[in-house]
C-alpha cells in the first residue's frame, strides 16, 4: 500500500467523508459536532467519527475501503484517533466485531452513559448489537502495547 496519512479532517472538508461513504454504498454518515478522522493516500480510504458524550467520546462511522480490508488499517485509524483523547471511548457494534475491538482494548464491562444506553436499546429492537468501551487506563496500556 502506498504511504498512508491519518489525520483529523478539517470541518470544511467533512463532505468528503460522506462522499467516501456513499461511493462505497455505506449507510454511514459523518456526525456534526464531532471529530472526523480519515486515512488517505491519494484519496480517503478509511474514516471514523468521534462525537462527545458525557464522560468521553462515541466512536461511529468506522469504514474501510473494502479493497483494503485485512491490512490493519481500521486498527491503526482507531489507535491514532483515540490516542489524544481523555475519557472513555464507547462504540455500538454487531456482536461478530467483538474480537476485533477486544484486540484494541475495548471491553463490554465499561458502563455506558445514559444517552448511549438508550440508543443501544433502540438499536437492539432491529438488530443484534453490543456496547463496548475503552477506558482511559486500558487505553494507555492497549496503545503502548501496539506501538512500534
TrEMBL record:
> Which Pfam family, giving just one, matches this sequence?
Acetyltransf_7
UniProt key word Transferase: yes
Q: Which PROSITE patterns match?
A: GNAT (PS51186)
Keywords associated with the record: Transferase
The answer to whether UniProt assigns keyword Isomerase to this entry is no
* N-acetyltransferase domain segment(s): 1-137
Q: Which domain of life is it from?
A: Bacteria
Gene3D superfamilies noted in UniProt? 3.40.630.30
| The protein's name | GNAT family N-acetyltransferase
Give the organism, scientific name.
Answer: Pseudomonas karstica
Q: What does the record give as the organism's lineage?
A: Bacteria, Pseudomonadati, Pseudomonadota, Gammaproteobacteria, Pseudomonadales
